[in-house]
């Protein structure tokens, strides 16, 4: 009898151990496959954050997880066939680098019932439906780019007191573009700022506008959310410094490219935060039960090197708001302070 009881105890212990062993460390014949679609090279930082985040939770690439990625290299027309190729691989989860990728992946993912997670995108939801798709089929990180557009204008005014005319660059083809513009226009009315709004739909058009607009037409530049403007930040930064315009961007890469400052959720952090959601799906949780998350972290980055080039002296009080301070000018930056 005692031997019989001991045998049952051993069986119970073995079953319990297997059941509660973390998903990432269970030895199964199936190795999770994660397929990632990126619009451009700038969003590689999100992929870095995704890999790092999953690694911290025990998912080691090549051992117990596999990634396949596709990069459209800023060619929007290529997204559709790249999405089709990824879906054909039958991944356990699809990951969109941003909103434009999610728009293309969502209908294909829903047809074959593959969970879709976006690594930072502007998404508006009602009870059951989003403009990105049904709530039960998609979730992710709302990067708050639209909601923060007005705050960026406020911070720009604090950093450079006395500005009256702000050049606003936006892409009307992407949902966050017009939505962010509406938020900025409301903020401008309250701040008594005159906006010079310029719509751009190609890098060629962006560069042409930057060359054509005279320095006296604006006191500063505000960049809206969009994959095109992410790619064009190098051109924006150089033109703005040449014309004496301080620029407010969205993330640290913008400050490194020549913006005076940037405010938002860093790309790498959007990827790390999305990793938590991917891990939940891989552990068997229904994507419908995973709510969209707001950013864990927002940071204000200020580039003192650019400030010196522009002859701008930022008050210590305003500088104290910064999460990171960069120096040494455009494309030669070093972090002086991290809070």
UniProtKB/TrEMBL annotation:
InterPro entries linked to this entry: ABC_transpt-TYRBP-like, Peripla_BP_I
The record ties this protein, via PANTHER family, to: ABC TRANSPORTER, SUBSTRATE-BINDING LIPOPROTEIN, ABC TRANSPORTER, SUBSTRATE-BINDING LIPOPROTEIN-RELATED
Domain of life per record: Bacteria
Q: Which Pfam families match?
A: ABC_sub_bind (PF04392)
Protein name as catalogued: ABC transporter substrate binding protein
